[in-house]
Design a protein that fits this description.
The chain contains seven helices and two strands. By secondary structure, it is mostly helical. Helix 4 packs across helix 5.
């Protein structure tokens, strides 16, 4: 996560950390990791939440397998490298498409494509029609299939 990327996972100011098992792990659920004091606090003040959200065994096994793959130096590193190359490909295609649509507005790319090195990318295209048109163009011209999220 972000703390790992910044080298802050072990920083003394951290009270606890939350590890989610969605997106990258391809599973669901999360865990809170902290000191005995944090654990005792959660047991005493969040007991209904803790015991109402326990994961079934198959979910725990899925999480374990996912983390084994992600932490593997061969397959994990290769998957991360591939993922970030796809992020770069996506950002380049978006920038190219925006440049073609708005050749006189070089700043438009910075306004519409939000800065993010992560696999979660946000592109703000105002207007439902323009949003759908842009999503279709990405699929047709760049073989990038995205779903346009529009206003109700």
């Amino acid at each position: 996560g972000v703390l790992a990327a910044l080298g802050l996972e072990q920083h003394k100011a951290l009270l606890c950390s939350i590890h989610t098992f969605g997106k990258a792990a391809g599973c669901h659920g999360a865990v809170v990791v902290g000191s005995k004091t944090v654990k005792d606090y959660l047991i005493n003040y969040a007991r209904p939440f803790i015991y109402s959200t326990a994961l079934p065994l198959h979910a725990l096994l899925s999480i374990k397998c996912s983390y084994q793959t992600m932490s593997s130096t061969t397959s994990g590193d290769a998957l991360r490298t591939k993922l970030f190359s796809l992020v770069a490909f996506f950002r380049t295609a978006i920038q190219k498409e925006l440049s073609q649509r708005h050749p006189d507005q070089k700043n438009i790319i910075n306004l519409l494509l939000l800065p993010s090195p992560s696999p979660i990318q946000a592109l703000c295209i105002p207007g439902n029609h323009a949003c759908l048109e842009f999503a279709n163009a990405l699929g047709t011209r760049h073989k990038i299939h995205v779903f346009a999220i529009r206003a109700p």
